[in-house]
Amino acid sequence: MKKILLLAAVAVMGMSVTAQEFRFGPKAGFAMSTIKVDDKQDDLYKREMDPKYTFYIGGMAEYKISDKFGLQGEVLYSPLGAKERIEESEGDVYFGEQTKVTFGTLLVPVSAKYFISEGFSVAAGVNFGIILTAKQKTVIGTNLPVDIEIEGGEGEQDIKDDIKSLNLAPFVGVEYMLENGLFFDARYNLGVSNLSNDGSGGKITNSFAQIGVGFKFGGN
Question: Which keywords describe this protein according to UniProt (predicted)?
Answer without folding.
Answer: Signal
